[in-house]
Design a protein that fits this description.
This protein has helices spanning 10-22, 42-48, 67-77, 88-114, 128-148, 161-172, 185-195, 198-203; strands at residues 2-5, 28-31, 55-57, 63-65. It is of the alpha+beta class. Strands 2-1-3-4 form a 4-stranded mixed β-sheet, covered by helices on one side.
Length: 204
């Protein structure tokens, strides 16, 4: 298998983190230079259909995009440590929190960075008002997470894909020196715990 990735983009980090948690080392990693537009070339689009990373090319020629879909595939091949849920109820709870973290935190943080960081102007025309709108939305959900994390160590009780999605989204904010509001102490404790995992560093 080949994983097409970029260390400049947040979503590929989700997959690398999943791989690191599971100790997956038999996947060839192909770095794509998104700043030069390599993901937008006709060859790349013809192969994967969209100008996105990450993308996974299977040995039989099947091609997968979208980080969560790739993560689920890898979990099916390597069930432990489990990141997506062991039974129907846990799977639903993890999916619920993962989706919330993606829609209300990770995506808004990505848009905050993409529309405000000067170096990313080659990918997106800077729009400060769009960046500010998304930052405010992300911070509203951070308050929700802070309340949730007052009662549990991790977002879905144990460490799962929901935590990976949330941490990667927040960490992308480092490009603009973003830090979550200091008063969100539960969020800060959780973030430090997740960043201390060895796989977090491997996925970065």
């Amino acid at each position: 298998m080949k994983l097409y990735t970029s260390y400049r983009a947040p979503n590929p980090r989700r997959v690398r983190w999943v791989m690191a948690e599971k100790g997956i080392e038999d996947v060839e990693v192909v770095e794509i230079d998104i700043m030069s537009g390599e993901h937008r070339t006709p060859d790349y689009r013809a192969k994967f259909g969209v100008p996105h990373v990450p993308a996974l090319e299977l040995d039989d020629g099947t091609r997968l995009t979208e980080s969560i879909a790739i993560g689920r595939y890898l979990e099916a091949l390597h069930p432990e440590p489990n990141l997506f849920g062991r039974d129907p109820k846990e799977q639903a709870v993890i999916e619920m929190w993962m989706r919330r973290c993606e829609i209300y935190l990770a995506n808004p943080m990505m848009l905050t960075v993409r529309f405000s960081h000067p170096a990313l102007a080659v990918l997106e025309t800077p729009q400060p008002q769009v960046a500010e709108y998304n930052r405010a939305g992300a911070e509203r959900f951070m308050k929700t997470l802070d309340r949730r994390l007052a009662d549990t160590e991790f977002i879905a009780d144990r460490f799962t894909i929901a935590d990976i999605v949330a941490v990667v989204g927040l960490d992308f904010g480092r490009l603009i020196k973003y830090r979550p509001p200091a008063e969100l102490e539960n969020l800060a404790r959780w973030l430090e715990t997740c960043r201390a995992r060895p796989a977090a560093k491997a996925g970065a």
